[in-house]
Structure formats: structure tokens, C-alpha cells
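ok so heres the complex, two chains, lmk if somethin looks off
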Amino acid sequence: MHRAAPALTSLSLLVAAAAVLPLAYLAVRSFERGGGVVWDVLARTRTAELALRSLSLAVAVTAACLVLGVLSAWLVVRSDLPGRRAFGVLLVLPLAVPSYVAGFTWISVLPDLTGFAGAFVVLTLVSYPYVLLPVAAALRTADPAVEEVARSLGRTSRQVFFSVTLRQIRPSALAGGLLVALYVLSDFGAVSLMRYEAFTLGIYTSYRATFDRTPAAILGLILVLLAIALTLGERRARGVVAHRGRRQPLTVPLGRARVPALAGSVALILLTLGVPVASLVWWLVEGTSTFSLADVLATTGNTVAVSAFGALLTLLLALPVGILAARHQGRLARGVELASFAGHALPGITVGLALVFFGIRFAPALYQTMPMLAFAYAVLFLPLAVGAVRTGVAHAPPVLEDVSRSLGHGRLQTGLRVTVPLAAPGILAGTALVFLTCAKELPATLLLRPTGVDTLATELWTRTEVAAYAAAAPYAAVLLVVAAIPAVALDRFVGGER
Amino acid sequence: MSGLTVKRLVAGYGGEPVLREVDFEVPEGGLLAVLGPSGCGKTTLLRVLAGFHPVSSGEVWLGGRQLTSEVPPERRGIGIVPQEGALFPHLSVAGNVGFGLRRGERGERVDELLDLVGLSGFGARMPGELSGGQAQRVALARALAPRPGVVLLDEPFSALDAGLREELRADVRATLKAADATALLVTHDQEEALGIADHVVVLRDGAVAQFARPQTIYTSPADLGVALFVGEAVTFPGVAGAGRVETPLGTLPTSGAGPGTVLLRPEQLILGPTGVPSTVDDVLFHGHDATVLLRLADGTQVRARVQGRISVRAGDSVTVSVDGPALFFEDTP
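and the predicted structre for the whole thing:
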């Protein structure tokens, strides 16, 4: 009904163009020296090896996450597991732990846990909540009447689980699984610390090691294409929504399985949270003499500055797109929103790489400066911010603005008294989340940080690389706190809704 | 001061106009209902009057002043009560009611209005703590607070359940009359439109099909479409002439001439000792009255509305007669 203001539309188009710029430039850079070079890189055995390593890791981790995620979701939502509400919170927490922090805590106590096994363990333990969350949501909203009908038709509760429940949660599990695969494929922190040369690490070494950087660009482009394929798959899988029931789902008694289920849940929490915390405490106590508090504080200051800059730029870019998406439904609005979601599919390493190339070629003055790094964050985390702006603005529906105007207030006053007070809390919360996510970002920061400016993530990574575990520990500790903030806030938020 | 006047109003989105030469008037202090099915242009009419949608041609006059498209919503003096109230969720009830008032005049006027809508003492509550009916009352108080020239109500009772709807309808009418407010209410519910308003505009495909008092709309509808839309009907094809028409229920007095449709209201069909023989197919009991489905000798089924105690059952043989004249609508060639 309403037509979008031309200014809003053109700003949104600009943001959409900026969001796909790194990807476009990566393609341009790859083909700059002709298709022959691209073919050469593709035909190398090393390329095939990298792809095979990444894909086998993704498959293994995804399979493990599907098993762990579905089982734990079912235990938390549907079983009579003692303390299942607390388990529900604790089992999701690992999601907030950056993979390289988890990697550090494992390799620093088990230095032999490298290669495929190490990457597999670390990535599985941080990414199974990607399956747990959507599956738990599906279990909560599935119509219990369907299961009751199956029971009344003579199926046992075990048969019902396999023939009815699993089918109800299949779309959610699939969507979660694809998200895990995307996460594994894009991960740089865990695979580099566990010394497993997957695609992302291959790109980084080929960028660092050789003078000719075209192969790095081509590899980056291949990774992006794989990631986009997974993202599209995930969007399709997520589109299939199960029928919503209006009642609480039934609780299934565990019976004799109660003790093993409890033991398994406790073991999983010990592995995902216990090991990192214990390892950190040990190194902090062990290594008090090896780190300087001043260094940690200075790095924290850097991280705050870089992340604040990034979060602010991301918010500015997200505002027009989010407002357009919330208020207008046209094809243009959907297209712009989709483009702004590019960052969801783009691995950090490729965004970093693309901006390195772009910066060297077109904006040498900006290369390795704060604005360039902030822009990389904006591209990567635009989806988060656009989502926040969109839901924020949705809290201030146009009808309230109409009422305000009919009561004698002009556009400006209506904005100040109605739209901003209603939309601001959601937008601010989203911006805070972007800030914390910037603070944890590793690969793009590694490539684009201004010379001499180290963040918590890069310090932890470089020190762990050279096995200076005690020196790395305080940075990991601060990062763990940073990671825990949104988890705690989210839990309070969710808790408040009950 | 002369209420709201709408003259040959045309408005639309791009190509096809949604409102086509709409004319009506609401006298000062009057309550007009705009009745029409969804998609007839009711919402567009409200948006045009409130100043959220431009006029293509025609005029809107309020209290002797012409409201052209250049007059922005905030300068029109037109209050709106949207569907489901749309209270500002971040403001208390008092904050909502006082939103359109200047700071100095808030306190007393807010109390006065809360009193008027029967919610004295609710000022400190937040919108989330109100029931649907209470939220609607607050929305009405909010719209009335700045003493607007006219209040527009958009399907104000559609989200409420049946019992509450009737009670609130009477309260809203009483409130509007007590505040001496001019009001325009749009609805798709004919019972609501006929029950609440002084005058009714029947809007069909963006044009006024009829503009009259509720009784007139019901007893002398402008055409067959209006007649069918505003109430239940029993219809037969027939040929009228010399003030009468042949129907399966006998020869009935009517006006008109030539082929057309005979229309009776179910309450005109009387079960009694005389009339046309028929069989009871079924009885649908509504509490205050009942609908009796009758099958006539020639096989046509008709509905009779019966008040009071129902003494017939499915399968009974009864005789049915007609009370009052039949409406007759000539076929349009």
C-alpha cells in the first residue's frame, strides 16, 4: 500500500551493492589473468586435497552434530530428564564459544590432539547447538495430537518416535545440519589451531606464502561458491515449517534409560564447558608470571575500539535495509534484504581476502586501517543488524504513527515520541550483539587489522600458534566472558517470556 | 459547524480508482456507518478522510472547512480508532489518552474521558494489562480527547467475541452521543451497522449503493444486492403486475411490474392455522429465536424465523402464511 521513499530505496540499494562488493571483486580478481590460470588452480591436486579435507570434516562434524543435537533436544524438550530446564540452557551455551577459543583450551592440554581428530572434536562440541536449537523449537511446536493418533492406532512409543516424531523434526534438523556444515566450511580458527589444512587454512597459507596471490583469490571464490550452495540449501530446508500444535508436548518417561541419559548429558556439558573452563583456570594459575596485565588491557581496549567502530558502521548500513524490509513487501525490498544477507554465506577469510585485494588496488590509503576493518565487519555481520533493525521497526507499526498524526503531531514529533521509543530497544540490543560478535571475529581481523593493533582474537591466535599457551590464556579468558554476555542476556530474555 | 460532507470523492492507487464518486453527509453529532464487504473501499475511504491517502478528485468538508490533500493528518482535527485499538505500547492508559493534548490540559481532560468510557482509575495501567474491550475504550477516549471534528472508527468491534461486541457497541454509541461527537464507523457486519448508526452508507465496489436510515435500508433496499447484503432473505423468481405477484407462498401484494425477484425476510413467514401447506425439514435453534427450514409442496425450501417457544419438529406438517408486502426487484436487462 505504502510506497517506499526514493531516498530509502536508493540508500538500501547502495548498501546491498556494498554487501556483495567483496564477492564480486573476488570473482573479478580470480579471472583477471584469464581463465587458463583459474583452470590451472582448479586442476592442482592440492586444490582437490583441500576440498576433500574440508568436505570430509564438514560431513563428519555434521553427522556427529545431528546425533548429539537431536538426542539432546529430545531429552530437553520431551523426556522427564531431571533438571532438563537447566540442561536446556547449559547445552546451548557452547554455541557462544568461538571455535579458536575452544581449540586453544583443548590443544593446550592435549597437544597431540591435532589434525582431523582435533578439528572434529572441537568443531562438533561448539556447533551441535545449531541442530539442538531448531530441533528443540520444532519439538515444542509440533502438534502432539499427531503422536496421540499414532499411539491410538497401535504404535508403541518407540515406534512413534521413529515413524512420527523424527519426521516432524526432519526439516529443522536438516536446516540445523546445513548450518553446521556451513560453519565448519567457513571456520578458520579451529582448523588453523588444530593444524588441519582445510580450505580456509589453505587460502591463508597460499596468501601468506607466495608472491602470486591469484591462486588465493581463486580458492576463496571456490569456498564462497560452496558456502552459497549450503546457504541456499539451508534457506530451502528452513522454509518447510511443521504444523503448529496448540498444546504442550507430551513428556515421555525415560524409565531405565534415565541414568545413561543423565550421565550422557553431564558428560557432554563437561566436554563443552568443563574442559575449556578447567583448562583456562589451570593456565591462568600456571602462567601468572608470563603475561602482563597492561598488555591484556591494551588489547582489550583495541578490541573495544575496533568492535565499536564496526558495530556502528554495521548499524548505519543496516538501518535503510531493515526499515525497507520491515515496512515494504515489494520484490525490490526482498532483493535488497537477500543481498544484505551475503555475509551469512561469506566465510570471514574470503571477505578479509577480497578487501585486501580491493584495498591494495583501489584504496591503498584505506588498506589496513580501521575503516576497512569496520567495513569487513559490516559485510560479515550485516545480516545480524538488519534482522535487529527489522524486528525493532516492526515493534512500531505504521498504524501507531497514523494515530499519532491524527492526534495532531507532525512527522518529526511522531518519530520522536512513537517510532524511536518503540524501535530503539530492539535495534540497540542488535547493535550490542554485533559489537560482541566483532570482538570475537578472527580471520578477517587477522588479514585487515591496522599494523600494531592487535585484538583479543588475534593475540590469542598468534600466541597459540607458537604454543605460548600460558601467555594466550588471559586473552581466551576475556573472550570467554565476551562470548558469555549475549548467552546470559539471551537466557534472561527467554526466561522473561515464560 | 456543519459536520462532515463528502462530495463526488474519487481516490485510488495508480490506475483503477478504489472510490468512485462517493457522496454522503454526516450532520454534526451524527453517527454514520459505512457498510460493505471487504475490498469495497472502506479502508481507503478512512485513509483519505484522515489524510493518509490523496484525493484524486472531489471534495471533503469538515465544519465548514475544505480538507484538500494538502492538509496533513495532524492539522485535520480528525480522530481515528484503528482495528484492535492500536494503543501505544510504551505509554500508560493516561499517557495514551493524553497523547493528543497539550501538557497543561492533560490531567483533568484525561480523567474526564476515562470517566466517560467507564475506566476511571485505569490511568496508570499499561496497554498490555487491558482486555480487548478495555483497550478499545481507551482508544476511543484517546481519539475523543482533543475534541476532533469527527472520529473515524475502523471495524472497532471485529476482534471481540460476540457477547462483548454487543455490550461495547451500545457503550460506544452512548459515549459518542455523550461527547456530542460526530463519528463515522466502517464495518462489514450489517447487524452492527444497522444497530449502531443514525445513517448507513452501503458501499459496493467503491460506489455508494444506498445512503439512508437503517430502517429504510432494511425495509426498502435500493436493489437486490443491498437487500441480500443487509439481511437474510427468502427469494423467488416471479412476474409482478397490478400490485401483486404469484409465489409458491401464494399471491402477495407488491409494487413493480414485469419479470424479477420477489424477496421476503424470514420473519415475514408465519407458521399458523392458515396458509400454504409445507413440511418442516429441520429446526435451527438460536436461543432467542429459531430458524425453521420448510419444504413447500413444489419442493422449494424456505426459511422462517420464529420467535418464542418452538412447538414444531422435523417431519411435522404445517401451514405457512406471509405477513406484510413482498419486496420486488425487476430484472435489469
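quick notes: The longest helix of chain A spans residues 293-327. thats all i got rn
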